[in-house]
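Quick check before the chapter quiz. The format below is the same one you will see on the exam, so make sure you can read both the input and the output lines.
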Amino acid sequence: MDDRSNPGSKTRRVDVDWLRVFATYLLFPFHAAMVFNPAPFYHVRNADLSMGMLTFAGFVTLCMDSLPLSREERGAGIRYQWISALKLAQLGIDRRFQGSGLGRWVVGFVVDFATELSLRVGCRYVTLDAQPDLVSWYSAQGFRRNLLHQQQRMDEAIRHRRDPANTAVSMRFDIREHAG
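Here is the expected output.
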């Protein structure tokens, strides 16, 4: 079978065919959602418009993690020093949406996701590394400082001649407290 788009080719690129099929199917949800787009260049409109169709409001990056906890931090029910967790590695909200509650919603989504994940794999906490000026914001969301891990980071910063005051703050959220 020859590829009609490339006269010199003797074999058909099935992977390219599937990419074309996939791209074609993406057109359906795209055009269905365009009726909610507040931009003025689409001819069909819905009375309920969505700014999310016009702009990228935020993002979150997650990965699996583990963290050391002192005996006092982990409590009587946890025997091991290193505890598995889901790490909220990055959280970004467009400046136009900051203060709208979107960040709180995303953090809540991550906690709910971690709670569901903990039913399938070992995951006790949601962890993050907060910029020093955002510690109070994350504390208001239910996160606590990881004292042992933070002390290890401070010691390492001093050992490498970095300013400990600019070191990211290790924090955790106990998903069992959230679920209970």
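If your answer matched, good. The first strand starts at residue 58 and ends at 68.
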